[in-house]
Amino acid sequence: MSKHMLSVNNLEVTFVSGLDQIHAVRGVSFDVKPGESYGIVGESGSGKSTVLRAICGLAPTSGGALHLNGTEIATPRRPDFYRQVQMVFQDPYASLHPRHTIDSVLSEPLAIQGFDRRDERIAQALEDVGLGVGFRFRYPHQLSGGQRQRVAVARALILEPQVMLLDEPTSALDASIQAEVLNLLERLRAERGLTYVMVSHDLAVISHMCERLLVMEHGLAVEELTREDLRARRAKTDYTAKLLRASAGYTKEDVPA
Amino acid sequence: MSLLDVQNLYVTFPTRNGPVDVVRGVSFNLGRERLGIVGESGSGKSQTGRAILGLTPPPGSARADQLSFEGTDLRNLTPKQWRKLRGKRMSMVMQDPKFSLNPVMAVGKQLMEVLRTHGAGRAAAKQAALEMLEAVQIRDPERVFRAYPHELSGGMGQRVMIAMMLVSQPDLLIADEPTSALDVTIQIEVLRILDRLVAERGMGLIFISHDLRLVSSFCDRVLVMYAGRVVEELKASELEQAKHPYTQGLINCLPDIDEDRHPLPVLDRDGAWAE
């Protein structure tokens, strides 16, 4: 077992469209310990989701190295990579196939990875995320947003991964449903010793879920903080301080910068 | 006299299982102040805002015992009378600039259209449009004036929409989640613009949002909606003393940077709240 579950070294992502080159991630590095929950915060366009997608092999990396458990991650990703690393996407309305039942959504990864006891595993996964087998043969449109996100979590968990990449898992949900999904994610992490990398624009959500976090702006890592730093408002950079102020709500006396 | 008076507002949609009331008996008065309407998806907060402007989408329909704007009864206006009111006296900012701006029309032309429709001359309209773009903190108004919506970022698009709604200097602005699609830092800038307009022009503002924390820090008064009803009305500053279990639950289930509560309290919905 290596010291770091996941390490990202000088990651660069460049999108090329025609003659334009967009440098979305510019030299980002961080390490995540086994069993840790690591947060990435930033505003839209900061490259935070792209980092997750790059780890998953969904965005083209143009530089840097990625290590999982001490071994370099191969490109293209091998099937066994996805047994260890799974991702939950932001919008549960877009990430589930509208014409597939929950059963087929959950059995597809099992079939690809050649798992046995599929029937039991599907029932167990639905039980684990608090849905129950009654949901097994429904379609996504018969579920609410929170229930869909539970299905997305079940789909990721069914392969028994060690690392979960969570891309704004609650930003499309109502506040009360957000609390339920966050509790679910916390419980699953405690039960299974999972490692999380969670992306969000909401500092309060990140400080609730993660022990350490990285602040990103314009594709650059601005600074790394611990939860305690965040609570004590120990921001080293102006940008983090500005984010902290803005997340506290609207203040009248605040003069525009 | 209050700016807007709403008594016993109902919005009804026909469904296969008979008519469903999505707004049920909402009443409130609005002066020249900032009123927040908070609720989760499906609580009827947006439909309340739309009904005030007569924009309930068919086949839905709205009815009320009283619905008046500065003494004008809004319930039985003809389309022609509505056109005189909407845009000029009262207007609405929608949630997403991607769907609310005309994609094949330059921003400046869309801004001028509001004024031209209400009788302003071309030169005056252009002047006012440029000034308004400046007022919403757009740094290069001339460029944005000529730009098409796809050439603007989300935050810029949202500011353009706010400019468009304010260029005619309405007395009442209904803002339906005007900042939900924006980053937190831009969100604060947009609120500051709205705040200034309320203070300087004495505009009435209805701010519809799901974000309780934001609303309580921005508005003077808050209506909390659940299942089509107003379950509680509060001064924004007294939100902490909310009495209704739904409001308390909504406040409690938000994670906070300074608090360590694991697991987060979840909302236990009581069937009686919807009665």
UniProtKB/TrEMBL annotation, chain A:
Coarsely, its chief localization is membrane
Q: What class of enzyme is it?
A: translocase
Q: Which UniProt keywords apply?
A: ATP-binding, Cell inner membrane, Cell membrane, Membrane, Nucleotide-binding, Translocase, Transport
Note the InterPro entries from the entry.
Answer: AAA+_ATPase (IPR003593), ABC_transp_ATP-bind (IPR050319), ABC_transporter-like_ATP-bd (IPR003439), ABC_transporter-like_CS (IPR017871), P-loop_NTPase (IPR027417)
Q: Which GO terms describe its cellular component?
A: plasma membrane
Record's subcellular location: Cell inner membrane; Membrane
Q: Which GO terms describe its biological process?
A: transmembrane transport
Reaction equation(s) it catalyzes: glutathione(out) + ATP + H2O = glutathione(in) + ADP + phosphate + H(+)
Q: How does it assemble?
A: The complex is composed of two ATP-binding proteins (GsiA), two transmembrane proteins (GsiC and GsiD) and a solute-binding protein (GsiB).
Which protein family is named in the record?
Belongs to the ABC transporter superfamily. Glutathione importer (TC 3.A.1.5.11) family.
Q: What is this protein called?
A: Glutathione import ATP-binding protein GsiA
From TrEMBL, chain B:
Q: Which Gene3D superfamilies does UniProt cross-reference here?
A: P-loop containing nucleotide triphosphate hydrolases
Q: Give an example GO molecular function.
A: ATP binding
Q: Tell me the membrane topology, using the record's own terms.
A: Peripheral membrane protein
Give the record's GO biological process terms.
transmembrane transport
One cellular component term (GO) for this entry is: plasma membrane
- What are the ABC transporter domain coordinates in residue numbering? 4-252
The lineage's top-level taxon is Bacteria
**Main location as per UniProt:** membrane
Family annotation (PROSITE patterns) = ABC_TRANSPORTER_2
Q: Which UniProt keywords apply?
A: ATP-binding, Cell membrane, Membrane, Nucleotide-binding, Transport
Q: Where in the cell is it found?
A: Cell inner membrane
Q: Which SMART domains match?
A: AAA
Family indicated by similarity:
Belongs to the ABC transporter superfamily.
Name of this chain's protein: Peptide ABC transporter ATP-binding protein
